[in-house]
Amino acid sequence: MKKLAVLTASLIAAFSLMGLGVVNQTKASASTTVAAGSPSLSVNKIYTTTTKVTGKATKGVKVIVESSKKKALASATASKTTGAYSVKLPAKQKAGTKLYVYAKNTKTGRYFYRIITVQKKTTTTSTKKTTTSKTTKSSSSSKKSTSASFKVSTPTGTWNSTSSKGYKMKFVFSQKTGLNEYVIKGKKTAHVLKNATYSVTPKTTTFWKINVKAKDGKKSTFYMRFTAKNKFVLVNSKNQKIKTSVGKAPAAYYTFKLA
């Protein structure tokens, strides 16, 4: 009996020195198995939307992901500087699926593994909806704030345009003399519309329709959008900025500023 006991003790010691994973295994939890002298391994939660298994392990060890049938799905090597790893899965996993994640030292044969159950992702969708809703409201508030930051009650005054190919325009709105339009190039000025009657139809606080009737009875319409209290651009009926030509001035995007 003494010889048998000595032989058994010798065999255990021999297996321990070899560092095989089956020797001195202890369970850390229901889903964690630890082999003596094995590498360390942590695994982040795996959801039905997960495409990569991530976590940290002993630096430089091989990380292997296997199915519950012990079929290898994918593998990667933990960083030699941080121990971080990322193993790309061949496909997303179903809820309740058990994955075996191994950290293995290929030189010593020692290993460590965790059994991870795939969880159903239920909170992400509602969180995203809430965030989107808040963003939309914030955007709407911003727009309202911008449109209400200035107020224009009348176009009365002299408005000078930006230039295009040396040409500039000048619109003069007056309750006494009506609407007068000028085209200016260098020192030359052409008076293209004289003392026309006009009326203003506000579409919004900054988007206006201008109805014009020239002295010869010819009627016309144009639209303006105020971008500031003292600036406007010419637009179409859909409030879209357009190129405009008056007299000999070339068609271009002009911005008018109150003199």
TrEMBL record:
Keyword check for Flavoprotein: no
Biological source species: Secundilactobacillus odoratitofui DSM 19909 = JCM 15043
Biased composition (Low complexity): 126-147
Compositional bias (Polar residues): 148-161
Signal peptide positions on this chain: 1-28
InterPro entries: Big_6 (IPR041498)
Official protein name in the record: Extracellular protein
Domain Bacterial Ig: 42-106
Record keywords, A-Z: Signal
Chain intervals for the UniProt region annotation (Disordered): 126-161
